[in-house]
Structure formats: C-alpha cells, structure tokens
Write a structure and sequence with these properties.
The protein is of the alpha/beta class. It folds into two domains: 5-176, P-loop containing nucleotide triphosphate hydrolases (Rossmann fold), CATH 3.40.50; 182-269. Helices cover 43% and strands 20% of the residues. The chain is built from eleven helices and eleven strands. β1 and β2 (17-20) form a beta hairpin. α8 packs antiparallel against α9 (224-235) and α10 (240-252) runs antiparallel to α11. The N and C termini lie far apart (51 Å). The protein binds adenosine-5'-diphosphate (ADP).
C-alpha cells in the first residue's frame, strides 16, 4: 500500500496554510481519514491544533468547517433548527449537518465545553454507523466517505476545564499536542513572521524559562500562539521588550507581582 505521507515534505505551506510538522501527526491524520476514524486532539491552548486541522483539510483538498464549542453549544446549534419565514417555517442545517451532507472535515474545538447532548448526538457519527439523526427534521443522514470528524479538548484537570468521559474518549483516535522543542518552535516563529532568527531563538528561550517556572502559578503558560504574536509585533518594528510585555506578560497574568517577574525575565532576555 502507498505510504500515506509519501508526498508530504517536512514543512508545508499548502493552499496558503502554513504548518510545521512536530512529529508524525500528518501521517496519523491521513490514516484516520482513510480508515474513517474520528480524531481527538488534546493539549493546551495555542499549540497548533486548529492550524494542523486547517492545514490537513487544505492538503487533502476538502471543505473545512470549525465550530468553537462553549458551555451554551447545544445539538440545535450543531444539527440545525427551524426558523419562521413569513407564515411558514424553514429548516436550516447547522454546521455538523452541513458537513455530513457535503463531506469534508469538521473541527469541534473544545468539545468538552459543549452541553452533554452534543456528545450524545455525535455518538452515531463516531462509530461504524457514521450516521446523523436529525430527529427534529425526521431525517437520517449517512456520512459520505470523505467526511471526517475532528475534535479537541484541553485536559487541564487542575484548572477547571471540563473532562471527557472515557466512553466518549474511546470513540476517537487521540493525538497529543504540546509546546514544541526549541528549534522547531523557532522555525515556526520564522515560518509565521520571517522574524530574525536570532530574535526567534531568544523568544523560544524566554518561553522555555517561563514554562519551567511553576512557581508563577499561571493558569496557562506562554504558548506558541503568544510567541507568534510577540514575533509579529517585533517584526512590525515595535521594540522587543514592549512587544513581549503586551503580547505575553499582560496576557498571561493580572497579578502585579507575577507580571513584574515576567517583565524582569523579558528585560533579561532582550
Ligand atoms: P490551538 O488550536 O492549539 O489553540 P492554534 O492552532 O490556534 O492553537 O495555534 C496558535 C498559533 O500558533 C497559530 O496561529 C500559529 O501561528 C502558531 N502555531 C502553533 N503551532 C504551529 C505549527 N506547528 N505550525 C505553524 N504554526 C503553528
């Protein structure tokens, strides 16, 4: 059988979407797609999960829909609803129904945050049936071959994030995302912003120190996303210290002492 990752170089910019591979995740995606297995991405915010799915959709030339789930997200939001039009009602597909009808990749970001009925509604889509039951519309849809469900969650059990039940977890193949190694992270900063490589290295060195400082008590630490933001500001001509203060220190904390510790570290770095 043809190796699925054969045509993928290490670093890719597909359809205008840049993604730097950090492990073997593109290979995993291709096999899951081929075998019609749903995929769950777990890891902290800002580690490239959304970018990865967007990139894979472009790479596979498939339509791509994202739903950012939150505590109010219900099946109605995902499946669809009737709306009143004059003196009749009209059914409007939700994004999940749309994706099942047309094929392609749907990404349910932070799925654990959604209401429990959402997890029940996707059960039949995540097993061999690959069916979606639109009870309100008296319709049953079977997903086409090129439909794939991808979801993400942040397993931050100490920080008040919601958990996913084992019975839901076991319906997905799972890929773990984390902060990349320093050379890969510097490469990402360069790929995203074309920032000077020496500054990219300083930024990732700074982030590595912050991530190692558990005593700061940060709810979430310096992510690749924040480094990219700082790198963009620096690249646009802002001084590095100011860029890192507003893009990283102020974003991570409102505690004056913790903020000062971060600013001190920024000043030591630049
Ligand atoms: P998540 O979905 O995990 O919260 P995102 O996919 O939104 O994170 O990533 C945040 C930002 O970090 C992206 O917009 C991109 O600039 C950058 N990024 C992180 N990882 C990568 C990667 N491997 N390749 C390219 N960009 C990345």
């Amino acid at each position: 059988m043809r190796p699925l990752n054969a045509q993928l170089p290490d670093t890719n910019a597909t359809g205008g979407v840049y993604y730097k591979e950090t492990g073997r995740e593109t290979e995993v995606f291709r096999h899951c797609f081929r075998e019609k297995l749903p995929l769950l991405l777990k890891g902290p915010t800002g580690t490239g999960k959304s970018r990865y799915v967007e990139f894979m959709a472009a790479e596979l030339q498939l339509p791509f829909l994202t739903v950012a789930c939150h505590e109010e997200t219900s099946t109605v939001d995902l499946l669809g609803r009737y709306i009143v039009k004059g003196d009749t009602t009209e059914w409007i597909d939700g994004p999940l129904t749309q994706a099942v009808r047309q094929g392609g990749i749907i990404y349910l970001d932070e799925i654990a945050e959604a209401r429990p009925d959402v997890l029940v509604a996707i059960h039949s889509l995540t097993d061999h049936r690959r069916m979606l039951f639109l009870d309100r519309h008296h319709e049953v849809l079977r997903a086409p071959d090129d439909f794939m469900l991808v979801a993400s969650f942040n397993p931050g059990y100490q920080r008040g994030y919601k958990e996913l039940k084992p019975s839901t977890r076991q319906r997905f193949v799972t890929l773990s995302f984390d902060y990349p190694g320093q050379s890969i992270e510097a490469e990402i900063l360069y790929g995203e912003t074309e920032i000077d490589r020496a500054i990219a290295n300083k930024l990732v060195g700074f982030a590595a120190r912050v991530r190692g400082m558990a005593e700061l008590g940060l709810a979430e630490t310096a992510s690749t996303r924040l480094l990219v933001d700082a790198a963009k500001l620096i690249h646009s001509g802002m001084p590095p210290r100011l860029s890192c203060t507003v893009a990283i220190a102020e974003t991570l904390t409102d505690d004056p002492e913790v903020r000062q510790s971060l600013v001190d570290l920024i000043n030591m770095t630049f």
